[in-house]
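Postdoc handover notes: sequence design on the structure in folder B. Input tokens:
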């Protein structure tokens, strides 16, 4: 998973990471000529750890599985399920609706010292079919005023992004005294031979004001002039 990097002036105030989901496994046994069902839920969350990972599978045969890795500014989700009608030598087959659903949310709050920011949103996806069975969502909010500043859904570009990656930079003007919240969310549902993997990463960079650069150059110039005059 891509690493998060940001300017030292960006101060993280809180991070909440959460993964949850549910699964259902349905199978047929030739021994008793019956359908059998089992289902379950899973989930984990943290507000104190820098990352969160979780891996689960359905039971008793493990025909559906999912995993997730989350950090303050990134996520990776993966899910797959065996095809329905799958047959084995011992007379057991996966049936509809063997499926698994997984959801992940990253909510990170931070404060900045400069009014100009650049938000770099990048990611990657691969899935074998059904474009509407997974998505990634990005939102940047001004938590002080409860105002949404930026919203984006990866599914808007599924035609070109379903088997590759992307990187986009958004310039924003913010208020340094405010607190901001970045929300990064993803979900996958897998059934009937479905496989999908999603990755997303956000990088935040403060853009120094042009005047500060000129003041720095002026300071160097005065220092050099003073040394030459000695």
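Designed sequence:
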């Amino acid at each position: 998973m891509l690493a998060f990097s940001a300017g030292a002036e960006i101060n993280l105030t809180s991070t909440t990471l959460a993964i949850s989901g549910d699964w259902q496994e349905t199978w047929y046994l030739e021994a008793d000529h019956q359908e059998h069902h089992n289902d379950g839920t899973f989930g984990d969350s943290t507000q104190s750890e820098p990352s969160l990972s979780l891996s689960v599978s359905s039971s008793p045969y493990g025909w559906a599985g999912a995993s997730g890795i989350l950090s303050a500014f990134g996520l990776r989700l993966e899910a797959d399920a065996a095809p329905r009608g799958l047959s084995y030598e011992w007379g057991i087959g996966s049936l509809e609706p063997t499926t698994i659903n997984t959801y992940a949310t990253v909510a990170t709050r931070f404060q900045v010292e400069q009014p100009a920011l650049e938000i770099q949103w990048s990611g990657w996806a691969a899935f074998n079919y059904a474009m509407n069975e997974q998505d990634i969502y990005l939102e940047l909010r001004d938590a002080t005023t409860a105002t949404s500043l930026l919203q984006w859904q990866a599914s808007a570009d599924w035609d070109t992004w379903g088997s590759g990656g992307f990187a986009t930079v958004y310039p924003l003007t913010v208020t340094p005294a405010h607190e901001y919240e970045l929300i990064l969310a993803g979900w996958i549902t897998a059934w009937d031979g479905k496989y999908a993997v999603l990755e997303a990463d956000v990088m935040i960079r403060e853009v120094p004001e042009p005047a500060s650069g000129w003041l720095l150059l002026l300071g160097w110039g005065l220092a050099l002039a003073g040394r030459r005059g000695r």
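Context for whoever picks this up: Residues 11-228 form one domain. Don't rerun without checking with the PI first.
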